[in-house]
Amino acid sequence: MGIKSSSWVSKSGWLLLKELKSEFRTRYALNAILMFALTTLTVVSFSLGLLSLNPQLQSALFWLVIFFSSISGLAQVFVKEEESKTVNILKLIAAPSTVFLGKFLFNMILLLLLEILIVPLFIILMNLRILNPWLFFPMLFLGSLGLVCATTLIAAIISKAHIKGALFAVLSFPILLPLLITAIDGTRLSLQGEAFSAGWDNLRLLISYAVVMFVASILLFDFVWNE
Fold first, then answer.
1. pLDDT tens string 51-61
2. Phi, psi for 126 (deg, rounded to 5)
3. This prediction's pTM
4. Where are the domains of the chain?
């Protein structure tokens, strides 16, 4: 049992390392999400000018930028396997759960790299004041975790489709809508300086969403991967 677990972890780690090496060599997904995020932020900032937005609008814009930026890059995690014809090789050397975990970890790292850039820029350009960072950053992390859990499975589903970009957005939005609503509301509370306890219900919902989506993705991925 211990040997199987070790093999599962090592193969997932190997797949993650392969994805990182491939991405930093081509920078395809990273460049896509960074350019989309920077363009969106710049356009929104200049459009609003000196207008002062309330925390509700700021939190909504914040999560919309993350959502639309992420779907421009996270979908590529399986698409490039189809384009490079390496899908069958992966099926031979790794179990479906191993493949999903490796791809999931890669997407999580990619999204966190995006947020390292986006959050400071959003604070500067949108004059964002985070009055309760102890609520803001857990909300950001859990929202990102749930987003990656859902989009990794959806990326596998649409990888064989002809119109990948449009289909990814269409499938992602209804699944991610509960997460976005919860994350926007929780982020609003952190911007208003509410106590951590005020956002606890939102945090619990995000934790539940991430757990349900991760378990569902693991269970469904075997069928999706071998279809």
1. 677 889 889 99
2. -100, 5
3. 0.86
4. 2-226
What are the pLDDT digits (tens) for 168-177? Answer: 777 888 899 9
Spatial contact of 90 and 99, defined as CB atoms under 8 Å apart = yes
Q: Please calculate the CA angle 14-169-34 and round it to the nearest 5 degrees.
A: 60
As a whole number of angstroms, the distance between CA 179 and CA 139 comes to 11
Residue 98 CB coordination number (10 Å): 20
The type of residue at 166 is A
What is the mean pLDDT of the segment spanning 132-151? 94
Residue 2 — pLDDT band, cuts 50, 70, 90?
A: very low
CA 212 to chain centre: 16
In angstroms, rounded to a whole number, what is the distance separating the alpha carbons of residues 50 and 35? 24
Is residue 81 helix, strand or coil? helix
Identity of residue 218: I
Contact 32, 73 (CB under 8 A): yes
What is the spatial distance between Cα 145 and Cα 160, in angstroms, rounded to a whole number? 25
